[in-house]
Protein backbone atom coordinates (compact mmCIF):
# COMPACT_ATOMS: atom_id res chain seq x y z
CA UNK A 1 0.00 0.00 0.00
CA UNK A 2 2.85 2.38 0.86
CA UNK A 3 4.49 1.75 -2.51
CA UNK A 4 1.24 2.47 -4.34
CA UNK A 5 0.81 5.74 -2.45
CA UNK A 6 4.38 6.70 -3.28
CA UNK A 7 3.88 5.93 -6.99
CA UNK A 8 0.67 7.98 -7.11
CA UNK A 9 2.48 10.88 -5.45
CA UNK A 10 5.33 10.70 -7.97
CA UNK A 11 2.95 10.50 -10.91
CA UNK A 12 1.16 13.64 -9.80
CA UNK A 13 4.22 15.85 -9.43
CA UNK A 14 3.65 17.61 -12.84
CA UNK A 15 0.17 18.58 -11.62
CA UNK A 16 1.48 19.91 -8.31
CA UNK A 17 4.20 21.94 -10.04
CA UNK A 18 1.65 23.41 -12.49
CA UNK A 19 -0.71 24.38 -9.67
CA UNK A 20 2.12 26.04 -7.71
CA UNK A 21 3.18 28.06 -10.78
CA UNK A 22 -0.40 29.14 -11.52
CA UNK A 23 -0.99 30.11 -7.89
CA UNK A 24 2.29 32.05 -7.87
CA UNK A 25 1.33 33.98 -11.00
CA UNK A 26 -2.10 34.86 -9.62
CA UNK A 27 -0.67 36.11 -6.32
CA UNK A 28 2.08 38.06 -8.15
CA UNK A 29 -0.50 39.71 -10.42
CA UNK A 30 -2.32 41.21 -7.44
CA UNK A 31 0.70 41.98 -5.25
CA UNK A 32 3.49 43.01 -7.67
CA UNK A 33 2.71 46.03 -9.85
CA UNK A 34 5.38 45.20 -12.47
CA UNK A 35 3.95 41.70 -12.94
CA UNK A 36 0.44 43.13 -13.29
CA UNK A 37 1.62 45.67 -15.87
CA UNK A 38 3.47 42.97 -17.84
CA UNK A 39 0.48 40.61 -17.87
CA UNK A 40 -1.91 43.37 -18.94
CA UNK A 41 0.45 44.36 -21.75
CA UNK A 42 0.90 40.72 -22.80
CA UNK A 43 -2.87 40.28 -22.93
CA UNK A 44 -3.25 43.42 -25.03
CA UNK A 45 -0.55 42.35 -27.52
CA UNK A 46 -1.44 38.66 -27.83
CA UNK A 47 -5.15 39.34 -28.38
CA UNK A 48 -4.49 42.05 -30.99
CA UNK A 49 -4.33 39.53 -33.89
CA UNK A 50 -1.52 41.70 -35.30
CA UNK A 51 1.36 39.43 -36.37
CA UNK A 52 3.90 42.25 -36.76
CA UNK A 53 3.07 43.75 -33.36
CA UNK A 54 3.31 40.36 -31.64
CA UNK A 55 6.59 39.55 -33.45
CA UNK A 56 8.13 42.88 -32.39
CA UNK A 57 6.97 42.34 -28.81
CA UNK A 58 8.44 38.81 -28.68
CA UNK A 59 11.75 39.97 -30.23
CA UNK A 60 12.04 42.50 -27.42
CA UNK A 61 12.59 39.66 -24.93
CA UNK A 62 15.77 38.46 -26.69
CA UNK A 63 16.82 35.00 -25.53
CA UNK A 64 13.77 34.83 -23.22
CA UNK A 65 11.38 35.19 -26.19
CA UNK A 66 11.01 31.44 -26.84
CA UNK A 67 9.96 30.93 -23.20
CA UNK A 68 7.32 33.65 -23.62
CA UNK A 69 6.00 31.90 -26.75
CA UNK A 70 5.84 28.54 -24.99
CA UNK A 71 4.00 30.07 -22.04
CA UNK A 72 1.66 31.88 -24.43
CA UNK A 73 0.89 28.58 -26.19
CA UNK A 74 -0.02 27.02 -22.83
CA UNK A 75 -2.16 29.97 -21.74
CA UNK A 76 -4.03 30.11 -25.07
CA UNK A 77 -5.58 26.71 -24.31
CA UNK A 78 -7.90 28.59 -21.97
CA UNK A 79 -8.24 31.69 -24.20
CA UNK A 80 -9.93 30.75 -27.48
CA UNK A 81 -9.41 34.28 -28.83
CA UNK A 82 -5.65 33.64 -29.31
CA UNK A 83 -5.32 31.28 -32.31
CA UNK A 84 -2.66 28.56 -32.10
CA UNK A 85 -1.70 29.14 -35.73
CA UNK A 86 -1.01 32.83 -35.02
CA UNK A 87 1.54 31.93 -32.33
CA UNK A 88 3.13 29.39 -34.70
CA UNK A 89 3.48 32.05 -37.42
CA UNK A 90 4.90 34.58 -34.95
CA UNK A 91 7.47 32.06 -33.71
CA UNK A 92 8.72 31.40 -37.24
CA UNK A 93 8.69 35.09 -38.19
CA UNK A 94 10.61 36.02 -35.04
CA UNK A 95 13.21 33.22 -35.02
CA UNK A 96 13.37 31.93 -38.59
CA UNK A 97 12.19 28.65 -40.14
CA UNK A 98 14.54 26.30 -38.26
CA UNK A 99 14.69 27.73 -34.73
CA UNK A 100 11.13 28.98 -35.00
CA UNK A 101 9.91 25.49 -35.94
CA UNK A 102 11.77 23.95 -33.00
CA UNK A 103 10.17 26.49 -30.67
CA UNK A 104 6.75 25.63 -32.13
CA UNK A 105 7.30 21.92 -31.49
CA UNK A 106 8.47 22.62 -27.92
CA UNK A 107 5.46 24.89 -27.33
CA UNK A 108 2.95 22.39 -28.73
CA UNK A 109 4.58 19.59 -26.72
CA UNK A 110 4.34 21.67 -23.52
CA UNK A 111 0.76 22.86 -24.08
CA UNK A 112 -0.44 19.38 -25.08
CA UNK A 113 1.20 17.87 -22.01
CA UNK A 114 -0.46 20.40 -19.69
CA UNK A 115 -3.85 19.86 -21.36
CA UNK A 116 -3.45 16.07 -21.19
CA UNK A 117 -2.62 16.06 -17.48
CA UNK A 118 -5.47 18.45 -16.66
CA UNK A 119 -7.91 16.07 -18.34
CA UNK A 120 -6.18 13.04 -16.85
CA UNK A 121 -6.14 14.19 -13.23
CA UNK A 122 -9.31 16.28 -13.00
CA UNK A 123 -11.48 14.10 -15.25
CA UNK A 124 -14.80 14.76 -16.95
CA UNK A 125 -16.08 17.56 -14.71
CA UNK A 126 -13.24 19.98 -15.49
CA UNK A 127 -13.26 19.03 -19.20
CA UNK A 128 -16.99 19.77 -19.44
CA UNK A 129 -16.47 23.17 -17.80
CA UNK A 130 -13.68 24.00 -20.26
CA UNK A 131 -15.28 22.67 -23.44
CA UNK A 132 -19.00 22.22 -22.92
CA UNK A 133 -21.04 19.03 -23.29
CA UNK A 134 -21.44 19.03 -27.10
CA UNK A 135 -17.75 19.57 -27.88
CA UNK A 136 -16.66 17.02 -25.30
CA UNK A 137 -19.10 14.40 -26.65
CA UNK A 138 -17.96 14.88 -30.27
CA UNK A 139 -14.25 14.67 -29.46
CA UNK A 140 -14.73 11.72 -27.11
CA UNK A 141 -16.55 9.79 -29.85
CA UNK A 142 -13.85 10.83 -32.35
CA UNK A 143 -11.03 9.51 -30.13
CA UNK A 144 -12.97 6.35 -29.22
CA UNK A 145 -13.40 5.52 -32.91
CA UNK A 146 -10.02 6.56 -34.32
CA UNK A 147 -7.65 6.97 -31.36
CA UNK A 148 -4.09 7.68 -32.56
CA UNK A 149 -5.30 8.87 -35.98
CA UNK A 150 -7.88 11.19 -34.45
CA UNK A 151 -5.08 13.11 -32.72
CA UNK A 152 -2.94 13.23 -35.88
CA UNK A 153 -5.78 14.54 -38.05
CA UNK A 154 -6.73 17.17 -35.47
CA UNK A 155 -3.15 18.43 -35.26
CA UNK A 156 -2.83 18.49 -39.05
CA UNK A 157 -5.80 20.79 -39.42
CA UNK A 158 -5.29 24.29 -37.92
CA UNK A 159 -9.05 24.93 -37.80
CA UNK A 160 -9.93 21.93 -35.64
CA UNK A 161 -9.89 22.04 -31.83
CA UNK A 162 -6.25 21.24 -31.02
CA UNK A 163 -6.54 22.10 -27.35
CA UNK A 164 -9.82 20.29 -26.77
CA UNK A 165 -8.36 16.99 -27.94
CA UNK A 166 -5.58 17.32 -25.33
CA UNK A 167 -8.09 17.64 -22.49
CA UNK A 168 -10.26 14.79 -23.77
CA UNK A 169 -7.27 12.55 -24.56
CA UNK A 170 -6.16 12.85 -20.94
CA UNK A 171 -9.67 12.37 -19.63
CA UNK A 172 -10.04 9.12 -21.61
CA UNK A 173 -6.69 7.88 -20.21
CA UNK A 174 -5.15 7.56 -23.67
CA UNK A 175 -1.51 6.52 -23.23
CA UNK A 176 0.58 9.67 -22.71
CA UNK A 177 3.44 8.77 -25.06
CA UNK A 178 1.00 7.50 -27.68
CA UNK A 179 -0.88 10.80 -27.42
CA UNK A 180 2.28 12.93 -27.57
CA UNK A 181 3.65 10.86 -30.46
CA UNK A 182 0.47 11.42 -32.47
CA UNK A 183 0.55 15.12 -31.54
CA UNK A 184 4.11 15.66 -32.80
CA UNK A 185 3.54 13.57 -35.95
CA UNK A 186 0.43 15.60 -36.73
CA UNK A 187 1.86 19.06 -35.97
CA UNK A 188 5.16 18.56 -37.84
CA UNK A 189 3.78 18.86 -41.42
CA UNK A 190 1.79 21.97 -40.46
CA UNK A 191 4.90 23.50 -38.83
CA UNK A 192 7.06 22.79 -41.91
CA UNK A 193 4.36 24.23 -44.16
CA UNK A 194 4.18 27.46 -42.11
CA UNK A 195 7.99 27.68 -42.08
CA UNK A 196 8.03 27.52 -45.90
CA UNK A 197 5.29 30.05 -46.67
CA UNK A 198 4.98 31.85 -43.32
CA UNK A 199 6.57 35.12 -44.44
CA UNK A 200 3.82 35.72 -46.99
CA UNK A 201 0.76 36.14 -44.78
CA UNK A 202 -1.83 36.27 -47.55
CA UNK A 203 -0.41 33.18 -49.23
CA UNK A 204 -0.27 31.42 -45.85
CA UNK A 205 -3.94 32.11 -45.04
CA UNK A 206 -5.22 30.83 -48.38
CA UNK A 207 -2.88 27.83 -48.30
CA UNK A 208 -3.96 26.91 -44.77
CA UNK A 209 -7.60 27.14 -45.80
CA UNK A 210 -7.16 24.89 -48.83
CA UNK A 211 -4.90 22.51 -46.93
CA UNK A 212 -7.53 22.19 -44.19
CA UNK A 213 -10.27 21.50 -46.72
CA UNK A 214 -8.18 18.80 -48.43
CA UNK A 215 -7.34 17.26 -45.03
CA UNK A 216 -11.00 17.18 -43.95
CA UNK A 217 -12.19 15.76 -47.28
CA UNK A 218 -9.51 13.05 -47.22
CA UNK A 219 -10.39 12.10 -43.67
CA UNK A 220 -14.10 12.18 -44.49
CA UNK A 221 -13.48 9.67 -47.29
CA UNK A 222 -11.53 7.48 -44.86
CA UNK A 223 -14.36 7.63 -42.27
CA UNK A 224 -16.92 6.72 -44.94
CA UNK A 225 -14.76 3.79 -46.11
CA UNK A 226 -14.17 2.63 -42.53
CA UNK A 227 -17.89 2.69 -41.67
CA UNK A 228 -18.77 0.83 -44.89
CA UNK A 229 -16.12 -1.79 -44.11
CA UNK A 230 -17.47 -2.29 -40.59
CA UNK A 231 -21.04 -2.67 -41.86
CA UNK A 232 -19.96 -5.34 -44.36
CA UNK A 233 -18.06 -7.27 -41.70
CA UNK A 234 -21.15 -7.53 -39.45
The count of DSSP E runs of length 2 or more, i.e. the number of strands, is 0
Query: First CA to last CA: what distance?
Result: 45 Å
Q: What's the number of helices?
A: 10
State the oligomer: single chain
Strand content: under 5%
Tell me the helix content: over 70%
Please provide the ordered H/E string of secondary-structure elements. HHHHHHHHHH
Contiguous uncertain segments of 5+ residues? 1-10
Shape: globular
Radius of gyration from the CA trace? 19 Å
Q: Return the structural class.
A: mainly alpha
Number of domain modules = 1
Mean pLDDT: 75
Largest sheet: none
Tell me what you see in this structure.
This protein has 234 residues and is mainly alpha-helical. It has one domain. Helices cover 85% and strands 0% of the residues. It has ten helices and no strands. Helix 2 crosses helix 3, helix 5 packs parallel to helix 6 and helix 7 crosses helix 9. The N terminus is likely disordered.
Give a short overview.
This protein is mainly α. The protein has helices spanning 2-11, 13-31, 33-46, 51-59, 65-75, 84-131, 133-156, 162-171, 176-197, 201-233. It has one domain (32-233).
Amino acid sequence: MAKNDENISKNKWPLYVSLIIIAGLIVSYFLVSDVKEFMNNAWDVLTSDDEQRITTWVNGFGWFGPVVLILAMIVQMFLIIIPTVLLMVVSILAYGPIWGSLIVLAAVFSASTVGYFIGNYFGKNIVLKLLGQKTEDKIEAFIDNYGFWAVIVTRLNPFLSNDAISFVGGMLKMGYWRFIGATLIGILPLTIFIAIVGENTDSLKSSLLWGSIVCLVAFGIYVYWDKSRKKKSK
